[in-house]
Design goal:
- It is a single chain.
- The protein is an all-alpha fold and about 290 residues long.
- The protein has one domain.
- The protein contains 13 helices and no strands.
- The longest helix has 28 residues.
- It is globular, with a radius of gyration of 19 Å.
């Protein structure tokens, strides 16, 4: 049975990746709550902007990967709308710009809280979403995709969410942004781990292509280790024992590392990709719950 139009666009939005947009806003808002400055309207606008940038980036990835030959019939991951002929390249390109335009308009609403400098952050986030797989020097094709995710879905997203509500930044915000960014990048690690052969053929030099699957597994593990060390840092800075709630995910992290190491089929990695996004969401919920008290 052919998918409906709604099913096609829902899949193109890649819901497995959306925790990367929600998690930083949740954590940044939790820290704002702790500071006594939580603002629901500002937090909602931050969430809307983050989700739209993530979806726009996914649409851009769908369009540009097809244009540059990375999405072909040999690809082993989930079906991509343009490559599968479900959406024309021109339509996906228009949808990409429409979503980014909506993100820009939502971001304009945050100027009331954060000032005009937020325009720079907003425009940089949108341009980064396009430059991830598009433009003359696509970041994802030169091994910088992980850095992009860490910066924009970790440091920038958590920091901006906190700043628009509190009006300042601090070490606690930086500490909280590190695990969020690293665990968001782990989603990309699993994705690129699965696609390493086809990416190599297409000239997409991801970190997995450059350094191999062993290095990717080491990155995946290291990100988990750092994510579990950070709550200890919060405890040392005077936060209550509740900040250790994320440590309850240690068995799940161990399971994910084992699944990545033992994966033998694309289907296993597709399942792990979704579970890696869920892990980020769970970590963000537990960290947010731990730091508000």
């Amino acid at each position: 049975m052919n998918p409906t139009r709604c099913q096609i666009w829902f899949a193109a939005a890649r819901p497995r990746t959306l925790p990367a947009a929600v998690a930083p806003v949740l954590v940044g808002s939790a820290l704002a709550w702790r500071s006594g400055a939580f603002d629901l309207a500002a937090a909602t606008l931050c969430l809307g902007f983050a989700l739209l940038v993530q979806i726009g980036t996914n649409f851009a990835n769908d369009y540009y990967d097809h244009a540059q030959g990375a999405d072909t019939a040999a690809r082993v991951g989930p079906r991509r709308a343009v490559a599968a002929g479900l959406v024309t390249p021109a339509t996906m390109r228009r949808a990409m710009f429409l979503v980014f335009a909506c993100a820009f308009l939502v971001g304009l609403g945050l100027i009331r809280w954060g000032g005009p400098w937020l325009l720079v952050i907003g425009v940089a986030s949108i341009l980064g979403g396009i430059a991830y797989t598009g433009g003359p020097w696509p970041l994802g094709y030169h091994g910088l995709g992980d850095v992009f995710v860490f910066i924009f879905f970790g440091l920038v997203a958590v920091g901006a969410t906190y700043f628009v509500q509190v009006g300042r930044l601090g070490l606690d915000v930086f500490l909280a942004a590190i695990p969020v960014g690293l665990l968001a990048a782990n989603i990309l690690v699993v994705n690129n781990y699965r696609d390493v052969e086809t990416d190599a053929v297409a000239g997409k030099r991801t970190l997995v292509v450059r350094f191999g699957r062993s290095a990717a597994r080491a990155q995946f593990v290291t990100s988990h280790v750092i994510a579990f060390v950070i709550p200890l840092g919060f405890l040392a800075r005077g936060f209550g024992l509740s900040c250790l709630l994320p440590l309850g995910l240690l068995p799940l992290a161990w399971s994910h590392q084992r699944r990545l190491r033992m994966a033998a089929t694309p289907t296993e990695l597709i399942a792990l990709l979704g579970d890696t996004g869920k892990f980020l969401a769970l970590y963000a919920v537990l960290l947010a719950a731990g730091v508000v008290r």
